[in-house]
Amino acid sequence: MDNINFINRIKNMVGEKGINIKELNDKTINILFKNGLLNNAYDIFLLKKEELYKIDGLTKEYVDELIKSINKTKNCSFEKFIYACSIPKVTEKEAIVIAHTFLNFTDLVIDINNNDCDRLKRIDGMSEEIVESIKRNKVLLVNLFMYVNPISIDEKNANIKRYKFCITGVLNKDTSYYEEMIKEANCIVVDNVTKDVDYLVFGDLANAIKMMDAKKYNTRLISERQLVDILKEIKENNKMKN
User: Fold this and answer.
1) 3-72, which class in CATH?
2) What's the whole-model pTM score?
3) How much of the chain exceeds pLDDT 70, in percent?
């Protein structure tokens, strides 16, 4: 991996969708890399205050906050841990689906160690290309696990139905706005319509292929307004189950 790709992987790993080390900004990542302190993704968790104090451009106050922030992120959610590994082809959406399929790191590694990766392959929409990418990055997953303790998903919450939504077309608000709403309701956003997608939210200029797939799989078509009402109902039902 070249230097630019490595640095981008680190930025992705510590970003908001990953383990979210807020104090570790782009400038600091570049400084640490140039000083030989970042050679592997997990080197972040080996940083020592005494080493960082000696580096020009890093104040004592900043270093103290940085180390504190790093230590806080060692207990992150399982899905954030998967995304933080920056495995090629594994987006935030795949990370969420994988996490809620396996519930914990051990079961994921057991499946990866099985050459057939049966459970991974059974996940709807999980292509052979993605599975192979995960297998190739098994060492990275295991090494990072030595320093990060991803929180296993509670089986009680895992049994709550997590509806899958796909969005297409031009909506009144930005797509990211509705994606956040869907995630807040403990549901999943996917890029394509497959047999296990529950709802297709559509607006103007909706993608024709997605609309045809929705018809093929009997996926329910809903508007923005219907989406808001459905998510409200889902959140209320989940509260009752808890």
Assistant:
1) mainly alpha
2) 0.72
3) 97
